[in-house]
Amino acid sequence: MRQDSTSDGTSGRTGRPSRRRFLQLTGAAGAAGLAGCVNSLGGGGNDLADTLVIQMEGGSMLEALKSEAFGPFEEEFGASVEVSLRSSQQNGYAKIKAGQAEADMTSVPPFTLYNGTKEGLWSPISTDEIPNYESNVLDPLKNPVFDPGQEVHGIPHAYGTVGMAYNKNELDSPSSWSVTWDGSYEGHVAMEGFGFIRVFTTALEMGMDPNEIGANGSYEENIGKIWDRVAEQQDLVVTNWTSGDEQARLFASEDAWVGEAWGNVIYGAVQEGNDHLGYTIPEEGAYGYTQNHAILNDISETRRKTALEFINFLLRDDILQPVTEKLGLPPATSVTSDEIENLYDYDPRGGKGLKFPDVAYINEHNDEWSQRWEEIRGN
User: Fold this and answer.
1) Measured CA distances, 373 to 160, 199, 370 (Å)
2) From CA 23, how far away is CA 25, in angstroms rounded?
3) What is the pTM (predicted TM-score) of this model?
């Protein structure tokens, strides 16, 4: 996983001098000539750490970064990238919280970003420290509701959705969540099996704000209507899935004709030959999430600067485009290509079709929602 440099300062991948070694060899004149093409944060390569350690899981994101970003970053900045593998989000977060994680930065989804911010684990980031954030990141993805407070703690590089998958042999381009309540599809509806998601998507279908259920009327009245609607839908459901593998199997096997799904999972299933599958972000919107990087709060300034440099580098068009094409999720910036626009999670409205979760609101109600959901599932 580590992209090592040789002892003479050359890149082990190409044999060319690393940026750090290049600056040492060429001096100020060489540095001045190089500065215009590296898109760095300034200050030269000698004030960066030799290595940058990122905590993350294995899988498609790691493979995309290894393939398209780690080597070029080392060549340009002279800092190699190492990965501290975690078995799960929960395991990695527990190690960071206990001070047992040897890492400089970490890959975090919305809930982990929120919880770590509240517990003081992430270093606040001034957005002027990452010029490509201000210039490149889509506006709807900036300062999301799940990054609490005035400061920024996570920088997105890709986004995804919990939208609607469907069998094209059974449904003709559905556009609304309401089709998942259509009795014509009894026994062939598949929805995600977590209480807060059942509340979220059902609120969208009913025209409510899932992050403020009591906005138009009382909370008690509106949440009651939501659960009645959820119970009505359950009569049509074949399975409430809880993993990517399970949802892929349900839709690929045609046990499920319509329901919630992760866009990248359905996209992958189609690439494997399941041409009967389609995917859409319904007109009411869909649960949205971002893949983010957060910097740990207790690292040295040199390592923090190296992390900032990597995040800024990742947000460059020439780097993020191939990373996200390989990942199968659309970029958090405006960079695009035919391949990106064909990704199932891609929102042609520039992220405006995504509804991000207010993690504080979900945390406040999650025990209540989980209990009510289990009651409905058990009936």
Assistant:
1) 25, 9, 5
2) 5
3) 0.86
